[in-house]
Amino acid sequence: MAEPFRLSFEFFPPKTDKGQDALLVTAGELARHQPEFYSVTYGAGGSTRDRTFEAVAALTRAGFAVAPHLSMGTDDKQAVEALVDRYLALGIKRMVALRGDIPSGFGTLRHVRYAKQLVQLLKAHVGPDFVIEVAAYPEVHPDAATPDQDLDHFRQKVAAGAAGAITQYFYNGDAYFDFVERANVAVPIVPGIMPITNYANLVRFSDNCGAEIPRWIRSRLAAYQDDEPSLRAFGADVVTDLCDRLVGGGAPGLHFYTLNQAAPTLAVLDQIDLPG
Asked: CA 116, 85, 136: angle at the middle one, nearest 5?
């Protein structure tokens, strides 16, 4: 029996109390689409650890289901398990396990090299009903030597106990469907969706993470970069068409990188005929 179609929304941890209050408002605005969970990101080397925990705690207290991101970075096993225990005490039942980046100044110090090791650590520490999500890269992780190596690492994370995967964002639906077909795993691979709201930021994010912006989209966005209403309207059309194709092609859900804003995500979701 197929799993129900799921929506999820990703936030980054606010730096101020005002930002925290605004995040709760954003979560409330998005809640009308009945997401399965909200996720909260975790900085390189755990640099946002406290802010991530505070955001997760605030969202949980407000009644939302939350999946914190977790990476080991330079932390040792005991430090990670202690943080996980704090999340368990909040009632957290899902996490997104990532390899994570090492912050500048720490050299190559790392207690785990691959995300599969973090998945294994979590599986050994939490109960059997705890859900672990991992990352997937339809356009290949920028650190991977080859697409086959990247796919092998992904399969290892699933074999280690991941119950599902969330992809890096992309704008080429073929990349997603090709990845799902080649991965051939039993867990859902949910496409990550990045609404388009700012030309310079999107180009910078995409160049850093290896997400391709198709040339025709990049050219149109460049032409609109000084006309925000036109850029947002064009961006919403591009992302809506992508989501329609993904849903029509059988994607098990959609995961929106909201950048802590409700309006760009709602502009897309309100135009999509979602399953169920």
From this structure: 25
